[in-house]
Amino acid sequence: MDFRYPNRKSTVSIQRPVRQNSKGKQPDRSYANRGMTFEEDINHSNDYYLQTGKSVIHKKPTPVQIVSVDYPKRSAAVIKEAYFKQPSTTDYNGVYKGKYIDFEAKETRNKTSFPLTNFHQHQIDHMKQVIGQEGISFILVRFKSTQEVYYLDSSHLFHFWDEQFTGGRKSIPKTYFEENGHPIQLGLNPRIDYLKIIDQLFFLDD
After folding, report:
1. CATH number for the domain including 98?
2. Band of pLDDT at residue 190, cut at 50, 70 and 90
3. 107 lies in which domain range?
């Protein structure tokens, strides 16, 4: 089955070849594997939070528009072609200690800054609405070259977003994350303990 992105000619197949090691076996995909993607690290962290009863936070499914369907059998339908639709809000949401949690996770290969092209206006509007309802909204950003992960409150993002339309820079300097964000060290359980930062910022008296 092929998935097509809106306004793009290329397609992305969801069937990927399985890599094997030198012994012809599939590699160990346990959470001890340090080659996990940023998304996998966050999902693993959320699973750990859920299993330990700490929070209920999930990744929102990417909306899909089905284009072509085959019916090889009367009892079964096979999706042959579909488009990934642009997400309307952010990547993750849930609840922690009675507070609504909502955040976006991004990574960049840029070594000195984080491009604002990673976001869309509707996502910025959504984060502003969350904060307006006294929810907790933030972004998690990983700089791939150094494997550094930062927690940054969404309110810091708004200034840079608005300034880019009036001649301001179109990225957030890495130094800004270092000075105003909160670094998160990669751990085991959870892999990315962002709730520890939320505790420090919002539940210090608990």
Report:
1. 3.40.1350.10
2. very high
3. 36-61+87-202
Task: Note if the pTM is more than 0.85.
Answer: no
Copy the structure tokens of residue 6. Answer: 């809106």
Residue 136 contacts residue 101 (beta carbons within 8 Å): yes
Q: Would you call 14 helix, strand, or coil by DSSP? A: coil
| CA–CA dist 41, 186 (Å, integer) | 9
Contact of 186 with 41, CB cutoff 8 Å: yes
Tokens of 145: 């070259």
8 Å CB contact between 12 and 4:
yes
Say how far apart CA 5 and CA 85 lie, in whole Å.
7
Q: Which of 155, 158, 172, 182 is nearest to 116 (CA)?
A: 172
CA distances to 61, 63, 82 from 77, rounded to whole Å, are 21, 19, 14
